[in-house]
Amino acid sequence: MTEKRIDGKAVAQELRRAMAAAVTDLKAKHGLVPGLAVVLVGDHAPSEIYVRNKQKSAKEVGLNSYEYNLPASTSQKDLLKLIADLNVDKDVHGILVQLPLPNQIDPMAVLSAIDPAKDVDGFHVTNAGRLAVGLPAMIPCTPKGCLYLLKDHLKLPLAGMRALVIGRSNIVGKPMAALLLAEGCTVTVAHSKTKDLPAECAQADIIVAAVGRAEFVKGEWIKPGAVVIDVGINRVDDAAAAKGYRVVGDVDFNSAYEKASAITPVPGGVGPMTIACLLSNTIKAACVITGVPRPAV
Ligand code: NAD
Asked: Is ligand 1 within 6 A of the CB of residue 249?
């Protein structure tokens, strides 16, 4: 293991460098430029920031980025029509619809309409099902990034380790548990009905926290030497901060740092890995769709 504070920003930067080289190669050898369509409906401020970061990173590694900013009043029918068009667009290999969507639109109807081959978020039930039964699938970006940190960066011998995933959402908790299970971890999934979370934490060699509650997981719960991956992104008021708030994770970083052998900070941990994995999924989709050999990124 290299460092105690896992620098997700640096790991993601390294990945982006490798992806930029791979994209240059794909273009030169096969005339292929992977294309990512990012659809934003409405003006949800955090979503606008996420989408901007995704588009910026896509362009930086040489992908084509197609942006669709639709008004908050967009009907489900119109959004489904756009997705149908993107599904058959040969320049588009990945489609991302930023969540949450306005109330008049059913997110499951929209996610189900995306061609699973272009589903770079990995939210389509086909991809979720394929992941669950161990078939090749588009893996949701956040859990994919967490697994990269544990397996490829820290090089943990995952088989047989006890992993605790806190949270059971479709976008983080469930796919994270499936990935760790596939690696041979003994996986526990904790959630809002879990009776004694500190006792679950005390058993875990690896904790992945995806709860959505600021600094919720305490250092005193954590087994000495455990590896802690903090997925949470929470704003807490802070009059001393320039913006009037700070961004913190689901783990109380300072107390957890004392107990853990390695831990991701927030910001600068999982977040940059999520975006890197989105780009990696887009390259993968482009290669699978066009039948071009896939680079190792
Ligand atoms: P979610 O609200 O869909 O799920 C939260 C989960 O936490 C639920 O499954 C719930 O059962 C569980 N939970 C709630 N209270 C609990 C408790 N007291 N004990 C144990 N479990 C409890 O959230 P999500 O979409 O999975 O996101 C979780 C967090 O991760 C949020 O802060 C979100 O902003 C962040 N997130 C970060 C990234 C990233 O790129 N870093 C990506 C996705 C989500």
From this structure: no
Contact 211, 166 (CB under 8 A): yes
- Other CB atoms closer than 10 Å to residue 159's CB: what's the count? 9
Tens digit of each residue's pLDDT (9 = 90 or more) over 64-89: 999 999 999 999 999 999 999 999 99
- Measured in residues, the chain has a length of 297
CA of 135 to the centre of ligand 1 (A): 26
pLDDT band (50, 70, 90) for residue 213: very high
- 121 catalytic? Reply is yes
Distance CA 203, CA 164 (A): 8
Rg (CA), the chain: 19
Helices (H), the chain: 8-30, 45-60, 76-87, 107-113, 125-133, 141-147, 173-182, 197-203, 253-259, 270-290
